[in-house]
Amino acid sequence: MNQLLARGRKLRAELDFFPQYEGLAYEQLCRQRLKRVDGSTVEAFFTGMLHKKIMNVCIRQAGLSPEQEAAEADPEKLRRVFALCRRLPFTITGSHPFESAQVCRGGVSLREVDLQLQSRRCEGLYLAGELLHVDGRCGGYNLQWAWASGSIAGAAAGMRRTGKKTGKSND
Ligand SMILES: Cc1cc2nc3c(=O)[nH]c(=O)nc-3n(C[C@H](O)[C@H](O)[C@H](O)COP(=O)(O)OP(=O)(O)OC[C@H]3O[C@@H](n4cnc5c(N)ncnc54)[C@H](O)[C@@H]3O)c2cc1C
């Protein structure tokens, strides 16, 4: 994403706050609410479905006011509120700064190291973790890569120092 932003690309995203409601229509979900709509505000009508602040954004984007009476609200606009909860559009203008990054892209290409993670350009230099051009999604993949590659590179570097062989081919 940051790479695309750096290239000046406009990024749009749509958030689905109810992925578990796939296939569930507004009428089904709000059937009970529609029965007792009398006197309540639009905000009260949607109470409990989403965090109030997010729901109010959807309500306003649908052309309604949270304070107005739900019974007098245009039914199409009420339906639109729910539709927005399923596909709320955003323009992505930036991300948190480098200091907040969990993982960074880039690094030494895997083509430039052998199977023991020794540099092909600089003998005796072993690389691991984020120094290499490997990155994954959140979920433990980056830590796993850091540990696994660190173990391989560390063992190989230690063997090299003591003159022992790891038993693995360099390619
Ligand atoms: C806040 C946060 C949360 C994260 N959560 C997850 C997660 O849930 N799951 C997941 O898989 N990954 C997660 N990551 C990513 C994961 O932690 C990293 O990808 C991984 O730790 C990278 O390991 P590394 O050994 O390459 O680098 P690092 O862990 O950054 O280790 C590099 C080390 O080198 C040291 N160092 C730097 N410069 C020098 C120098 N000149 N001389 C000597 N030492 C130096 C640093 O102090 C540091 O100890 C998270 C990262 C952050 C920042």
Structural description of this entry:
With 171 residues, the chain is mainly α. The chain folds into 2 domains: 2-92, Helicase, Ruva Protein, domain 3 (Orthogonal Bundle), CATH 1.10.8; 99-162, no CATH class. Helix content is 36%, strand content 6%. It has helices at residues 2-6, 26-29, 31-35, 42-45, 52-61, 75-86, 141-162, and strands at 11-15, 88-92. A two-stranded antiparallel sheet has the order 1-2. Flavin-adenine dinucleotide (FAD) binds at residues 102-103, 129-130, 138, 140-143, 146. Flavin-adenine dinucleotide is lined by residues 102-103, 129-130, 138, 140-143, 146.
What tags apply to this protein structure?
7 helices; 6% strand; 2 strands; 171 residues; binds flavin-adenine dinucleotide; Helicase, Ruva Protein, domain 3; mainly alpha; two-stranded antiparallel sheet; 2 domains
Q: Name the helicity range.
A: 25-40%
Strand content: 5-15%
Counted up, domains total 2
Give the distance, in angstroms, between the N- and C-terminal Cα atoms.
Answer: 33 Å
CATH topology-level name of the largest domain: Helicase, Ruva Protein, domain 3
User: Helical element count?
Assistant: 7
Shape, principal axes of CA atoms = elongated
Bound molecules: flavin-adenine dinucleotide
Strand order of the largest sheet: 1-2
Radius of gyration: 27 Å
According to DSSP, the number of beta strands is: 2
What would you say the CATH architecture of the largest domain is?
Orthogonal Bundle
- Low-pLDDT parts are none
State mean pLDDT (0 to 100 scale): 89
Instruction: Spell the H/E element sequence.
Output: HEHHHHHEH
Coarse structural class: mainly alpha
Main β-sheet, in a few words?
A: 2 strands, antiparallel
| CATH class annotation of the largest domain | Mainly Alpha
